[in-house]
Amino acid sequence: MTEKPVIEASNLSLTFQTGDGPVHALKDVDLEIGKGEFVSFIGPSGCGKTTFLRCIAALETPTAGRLTVNGMSPDEARKARSYGYVFQAAGLYPWRTIAGNVRLPLEIMGYSKEDQAARVEKVLSLVDLEGFGKKFPWQLSGGMQQRASIARALAFDAEILLMDEPFGALDEIVRDKLNEELLKLWSATNKTIGFVTHSIPEAVYLSTKIVVMSPRPGRIHEVIESTLPKGPRPLDIRDSEEFLKIAHQVREGLRAGHAYDE
Ligand SMILES: Nc1ncnc2c1ncn2[C@@H]1O[C@H](COP(=O)(O)OP(=O)(O)OP(=O)(O)O)[C@@H](O)[C@H]1O
């Protein structure tokens, strides 16, 4: 990697002290994510995927190790608005229109009214929701609501997009479509994406790099570099030999990570 990594973790650990004793959510995590990479985190429940994303976003504080985001501490990166965050539930305010929801971070950040309007229009069109700005969230399907929440995370044009199982609650057909759209959007914007998922096909279809994690303690079991072409990928790439090979490798990694636990 010639350019400096956008996200760099070394020996990163986070132990939660709970009533039942310490929980090692992350243990000695080493990872570099370069600019423009699409990195998926996959692994069984409790292996620390969300915790790792939350550390990047300065929503959790690691108990040991080093983590930099754009060369800064996560807290500095948060203040510099280095990332947008998309949660599993769309989390739109029901009393605000779609445009009003997408505009919210811009209002908080003090963008001018003109700039707000221009940015809202641009990102709604990026996620294929032009013309829906005046609707309320309940008037949109689940997939459209999730697209609106992606637009909100894109509105201030952060370099990094953190996505925690954004499509987990959607049916497979909608999910396929959003996967395809997300890849196009990523190619068009060259953002760096960290994406949590439980789905092997989703991880393989989307990613340039797949981080296979295992639980107790939460750690990286294996990092798989994708050999699929970078950029938009047709959905039927999932039938290709190359795709199936990578999916197999991820499945084996998940299995081995589990076996280690027993
Ligand atoms: N605030 C907290 N206090 C105590 N324990 C926590 C806290 N947050 C997470 N944990 C524990 O840390 C471990 C890792 O949790 P995390 O949510 O990161 O896992 P995950 O891989 O994202 O799981 P899932 O796939 O279910 O979302 C789990 O054992 C979880 O119970």
TrEMBL record:
Protein name (record): Pyrimidine ABC transporter ATP-binding protein
Lineage: Bacteria, Pseudomonadati, Pseudomonadota, Alphaproteobacteria, Rhodobacterales
Keyword Cytoplasm (UniProt): no
Xref: CDD domains: ABC_NrtD_SsuB_transporters
Example GO molecular function: ATP hydrolysis activity
SUPFAM superfamilies in alphabetical order: P-loop containing nucleoside triphosphate hydrolases
Keyword annotations from UniProtKB, A to Z: ATP-binding, Nucleotide-binding, Transport
Occurrences of domain ABC transporter (ranges): 7-240
Record-stated family: Belongs to the ABC transporter superfamily.
